[in-house]
Amino acid sequence: MPSVSEVEFSRRGLLAGSAATAVIVASPVGAAVTTPPKADAAPTMPVRFKVNGEKRELSLDPRTTLLDALREHLHLTGTKKGCDHGQCGACTVMVDGVRINSCLSLAVMHEGDEITTIEGLGTPDKLHPMQAAFIKHDGYQCGYCTPGQICSAVAVLDEIKRGIPSHAQGDLMTKPTATNVEMRERMSGNICRCGAYSNIAEAMAEVAGAKA
Ligand code: FES
Ligand code: FES
Fold first, then answer.
1. How confident is the model over 143-154, as pLDDT tens digits?
2. What separation in Å is there between the alpha carbon of 77 and the centre of ligand 1?
3. Going by C-beta distance under 8 Å and a sequence separation of 6 or more, which residues neighbour residue 186?
4. How confident is the model at residue 42 (pLDDT cuts 50, 70, 90)?
5. CB of 90 closer than 6 A to ligand 1?
6. CA dist 91 to 68, 107, 114, 123, Å?
7. CA distance 8 to 4
8. Which among 84, 49, 45, 47 is positioned nearest to 67, based on CA atoms?
9. pTM of the entire structure?
10. Which of 98, 193, 96, 64 is nearest to 140 (CA)?
11. Measuring from each residue's beta carbon to the nearest atom of ligand 2, which residues come in under 6 Å?
């Protein structure tokens, strides 16, 4: 059995050893702080798609959303960023004729796709019928949600025409029609904080009637 003095010696030795180890460990860490390692540049991926009929080729960080690719890389700022979380519809564009929230989709997933934004629907001289109807019926106030509303409205009428069912239908076996209830249900993902909903519905009804 060790004597008391031997135990004291061992304890002092252990503490001294620990302190020395701490100094040794501290040195390289301190040195690392003064010369931080360089972060590697983010890798990029090529993507080719058509936007409003024009071929576009980009090299993007694969985490780039379609919304950011359109706005920040192609400078098509008609498409708006509202929530950036798939909750407001301000970023709605059409991909191969189908509406999507571009904030929820990665740009590199759209290789070969045809993307239509508000800039591709019409021009100031030749408005798309839905753009003209929104103006006629005052379907906006501040206008921030409007590009998304119009892209969505165009796609909604096409969905109804193609017989795609919605939650508002009582009978899934009957072809949907462009009723007020049907259009409001399908447009429920497009939020308007100015509350222009009634006028948007009137604009859509006019275009749907003109098409019928
Ligand atoms: S910005 Fe995409 S849904 Fe709101
Ligand atoms: S017009 Fe202002 S948010 Fe819709």
1. 999 999 999 999
2. 14
3. 156, 159, 160, 166, 168
4. confident
5. yes
6. 10, 13, 16, 19
7. 6
8. 84
9. 0.81
10. 193
11. 140-146, 192-194, 196
